[in-house]
Amino acid sequence: MLHNTGEGGLSKHHLHRADLILQLGTAYFAARDEKGNFSLPNLVETVERNPQIKAIEIKLSQGGKPGIGGLLPGEKVTPEIAEARGIEVWKTCASPSGHTEFHDADSMLDFIEKLAGATGLPVGIKSAIGQMDFWTDLAKLCAETGRAPDYIAIDGGEGGTGAGPLAFTDHVALPFKIGFARVYAEFAKRGMNEKVVFVGSGKLGFPVDALFAYALGCDMIAVGREAMLSIGCIQAQRCHTGICPAGIATHNKWLMAGLDPALKSARLANYLVTLRQEILKLTHSCGVEHPSLLSPDHIEILDGNLGASSIEEVLKLDGLLPRPSHADRDRIREVLAR
User: Fold this and answer.
1) Is 166 exposed, middle or buried (CB count within 10 Å of its CB: 0-12, 13-18, 19+)?
2) How far apart are CA 60 and CA 178, in angstroms?
3) CB 27 within 8 A of CB 80
4) Confidence (pTM)
5) Residue 27 maps to which CATH number?
C-alpha cells in the first residue's frame, strides 16, 4: 500500500513510515527553486533526504478539475504549509494550468527519463482523459523508442475535489470506465500494456467498482474520496474556503476540534482493511485467488431489459483486454503461498 502526497508538496505528516509516491503538479512543490521553477537538484535532495519516497508521479490533470490550475489563498499559507511547499508564508500561491518542463508526449518522455535517471525511482503520470491524440502519440512513442512511464494512473471525470468549479467537476473529462478503456486499448494495440503498470481512480473505493477496474486492466487502484468519507468528510464542497464544517480542509481551530486524529485514523484503517477483505472475498467467489487474475470474462453488463453484454462488447475493445495465462496463475499462487 502506497500513500500519494498529492501535488501540495511533502510535509512532516507524510513521514510516519508510510511508503510514499511524491506527486509533482504544475507548481513543482517539493522540487522547485526560489522563483517557482522546477529544480532537479532540489528534487534529488528531497528524495535522498526522505527514503520513504518510493516513486514519483507527474500529475497532468485530475478528474475533479481537469484542465485548470489552482490557487492557494495567502491566509491558508501557514508556516507549516509554506515549509511543505517551499513557498512564502501568508502569500497567495498559484499553480499554472499546464507544465512548463514539457509540452507534448515526446518532451514529457524526456522529462520522465531525466527524473528517473537522477533519482533512480520509478516515474509515472496521472491524468484525466479527454481527447485521445496525446495518448495515441504517447503509446506510439513508447512502442517505437522504448521510453515509457513506469505507470499510468487514469482518473475518471467522477474523481472528486470540493475545490473545483462545478462546470468542470460535472462536465469535463470522461468517466473512468470509458477513459481508461480508450487509453488501455492504445497501449494494448502496440503490445505495451504489459510493460506499463496501469492504475485506476475515480470512485473505485467500493469492492465491486474495484473488481471492475481490475477486470478492465488495472494493476492497482487509488482511493481518495472514500478514505476522506471515513474520517468525516460530508462533501460540503467548502475545501477552498477555509471553513470545512468537518474540520478536515481548514485551519480554523474551532472547526479543527471536530477532527479527532486518534478516532479518525482508526476509522480510516478499518475502511482500508474492510475494503481489501471484501475485494478478496468477491475475487474468490469468481474462482480465482487474487484480483490480478480477474478477466473481462468475470464481468457482465446488464441492460435492464434481460440483456447482457461483456465489457469488451460494450466498450468496443475487440479482445484487447488481458486474460491471465496459466503461468500468471502459477506465479500468483507461488507468491501467495509465501
Assistant:
1) exposed
2) 18
3) no
4) 0.93
5) 3.20.20.70
